Amino acid sequence: MLHLASKSPRRLELLRQLGLDPGLLDLDVPEQRQPGEPPEDYVSRVAREKAGAGLLKVMSSPQAVVLGADTEVVLGDTVYGKPTDAADAARMLAELSGRTHRVITCVWLVSAGREEHATSISDVRFAELTGPQIEAYVASGEAFGKAGAYGIQGRAAAFIAHLSGSHSSVMGLPLHETAVLLRKFQLLP
């Protein structure tokens, strides 16, 4: 049985698009980047830690497979996680305005005897955003709980001038890469 080690409704929605209905695991895994840790390594480590923590919760089920994922917005060497408040969200959006950033998503599948992972990197170019646009978006509440203070599946889609990569990865789960991993575990035909 597949379990999702995430509180993200978007990841659950994306897995359901693949025809799966995973068990949900509510975990609290710290997301703290280590000094000098490259962004890709950080995203992979956090995703692996989520999957591993989830597996510990379901070890009594020998057929359990746990999916852990992490998504971060990266500009240069700066990793933009979830904003802490409205001012933090507005700062992030202002810094991303008119620039191209990377969205890195790493997915880990783990079971009692196996681990597999995949990483998806997408380039996203934001249009120039005005102060009122940023204020209105932050006031909508959509900026919270999302890396980089935006969700591509909502109002922020209007900010995206160009996307090179995976739309579903920017949402939080690259469907192609995830399907390949799920097939390796014989969870998809």
TrEMBL record:
Per the UniProt record, the site (Important for substrate specificity) maps to 10, 71, 153
Q: Which reaction does it catalyse?
A: dTTP + H2O = dTMP + diphosphate + H(+); UTP + H2O = UMP + diphosphate + H(+)
Q: What does UniProt list as catalytic? A: 70
Would you say which domain of life the source belongs to? Bacteria
Per UniProt, subcellular location reads as: Cytoplasm
The cross-references to Pfam families, in alphabetical order and at most eight, read:
Maf
Query: Major place of localization?
Result: cytoplasm
What are the protein's GO molecular function terms?
dTTP diphosphatase activity; UTP diphosphatase activity
What's the family?
A: Belongs to the Maf family. YhdE subfamily.
Name the SUPFAM superfamilies on file: ITPase-like
The enzyme's main class, written as a single word, is: hydrolase
Q: Which GO terms describe its cellular component?
A: cytoplasm
> What biological processes does GO assign it?
nucleotide metabolic process
Which Gene3D superfamilies does this one have? 3.90.950.10
Organism classification: Bacteria, Pseudomonadati, Pseudomonadota, Gammaproteobacteria, Lysobacterales
For this protein, what is the EC number? 3.6.1.9
Q: What is this protein called?
A: dTTP/UTP pyrophosphatase
| PANTHER family in UniProt | BIFUNCTIONAL DTTP/UTP PYROPHOSPHATASE/METHYLTRANSFERASE PROTEIN-RELATED, BIFUNCTIONAL DTTP_UTP PYROPHOSPHATASE_METHYLTRANSFERASE PROTEIN-RELATED
User: Which keywords appear in this protein's UniProt record, sorted alphabetically?
Assistant: Cytoplasm, Hydrolase, Nucleotide metabolism
| Organism in which the protein naturally occurs | Arenimonas oryziterrae DSM 21050 = YC6267
- Database matches in InterPro entries: ITPase-like_fam, Maf-like
HAMAP family attached to this UniProt entry: Maf
The record describes the protein's role as: Nucleoside triphosphate pyrophosphatase that hydrolyzes dTTP and UTP. May have a dual role in cell division arrest and in preventing the incorporation of modified nucleotides into cellular nucleic acids.
Q: Which cofactor does it need?
A: a divalent metal cation
